[in-house]
Amino acid sequence: MASTPAVLAQTEFAICIVCILLTPLAAAGLALINTGFARTRSAAHSMVSAVCVMAVAVLAYFILGFAIQGFAGGPAHSLTFRGHVWNLIGSEHVFMRKLPLDGSAVPLIACLQAFSVALAAMIPLGSGAERWRFGASCISTAILAGIIYPLFAHWVWGGGWLAQLGAFAKAGNGAIDAGGAGVIQAVGGVSALAVAWILGPRRGKFDLSGMPGAIPGHNVIFVLLGCMIAFVGWLGLDTAGAILFASAPAVRIILVALNNLVAASTALITAFIVTGVRFGKPDASITANGFIMGLVSVSGACAFISPAAAAAIGLVAGVVIPFSIEWLDRLGVDDASGSISVHGLGGIWGVLAVGLFVRASAGQWLAQLAVVATLLGFVLPVSYGLNLLLDRVYRQRVSRDGERRGMDMAELGANAYPELTPLTTDYLYR
């Protein structure tokens, strides 16, 4: 499933193009979600950061990232161990030089990954909202898009060692991740956790005794609209990924669409019910997060499972999301938009769900466990270490006064809603 076809049929090529062009809608939806979860005094900063982070991610991937990621069957640097040649890192040209513009899958992969890395880079913006300096977020994005993301993507999608586990370690077909539950979502999610740890909580999130309090976003309508827009982008992302990275036939586009719709709907309704039972009334924000977590969770297996299995995956996501957000609060992790739970935990569940629901060769669950172990044992500490080093050189958190005034005034000089006076009650909290 992990092999990349050298030449695509005309139908598959056309479908991939259409789906790839839909993918930016996922990033647009995520930008709206992050902005809606921010307060009025940081709304413009959130949206500007999303646009600029997307641009930085694309440029970093264009300059270096694609050379590191490469593609299955392409040139790579390898290591021989116990008689097997393990593929470690791509060996393409920087600046995408000599990228073939033909009927092969390679240019489609390059284009899809430029959009995908932009989506992954937006995920940490949600966890660092209202306190992450603009310049720091851009530098951190360059590290993620130029080094961390393409390296992990090569291991899973570029014929790297995780994809080789099936042949060399009797682990099913090797790592399977059709739509990027691990490569896009979980990588962005664990990076969001690293950023949240380094930045610390927002002022006002915890009272003097250390108890967490709610900081409602300024516009839940933005959040819900972002979910609807992101859903369209997800259909394109998962379909193109399934064809290009999992060799799924073009006719699976209907199955991918059904599985996305069923998983997201099940997760949304489940989160709606769970929050209604726990809090007396349903929580709109957590319900929206449940919808996106359903999409995230089904991405890995979207082209290879039945709608019933997709519903089961979405059910788990809808049950887990309210508790995950609460647990992170109790652990002192301030995740403004729920990015760590939705994309990090949701992506990990999506990777594991492949091993549970996809009918692959024996031992597939071992390959999926290896993907999760690599995310937690490599991607998370490397992301944390590099961002911590960046924080030592260029402080990532805005000043205390800047946070009090709001990111719009502190870094842009103007509020998104100038007619509103920001509240300044944070002095009550530590």
Short précis:
With 430 residues, the protein is mostly helical. The protein has helices at 10-22, 24-37, 43-69, 106-127, 134-157, 165-168, 181-199, 220-246, 253-279, 284-298, 307-330, 339-357, 364-393, 400-405, 407-412, and strands at 76-81, 84-90.
Question: Could you walk me through the main structural features you see in this protein, from its secondary elements to its overall organization?
Answer:
The longest helix has 30 residues, at 364-393. The chain contains 15 helices and two strands. It has helices at residues 10-22, 24-37, 43-69, 106-127, 134-157, 165-168, 181-199, 220-246, 253-279, 284-298, 307-330, 339-357, 364-393, 400-405, 407-412; strands at 76-81, 84-90. The protein has a single domain (10-428), classed as Ammonium transporter AmtB like domains (Ammonium transporter fold), CATH 1.10.3430.10. Helix 3 runs antiparallel to helix 4, helix 7 runs antiparallel to helix 12 (339-357) and helix 9 packs antiparallel against helix 10 (284-298). The chain has 430 residues and is mainly α. Helices cover 64% and strands 3% of the residues.
CATH superfamily: Ammonium transporter AmtB like domains
Please, how many helices? Answer: 15
- Find the count of extended strands (DSSP E, 2+ residues): 2
Shape, per Cα inertia axes: globular
CATH-defined architecture: Orthogonal Bundle
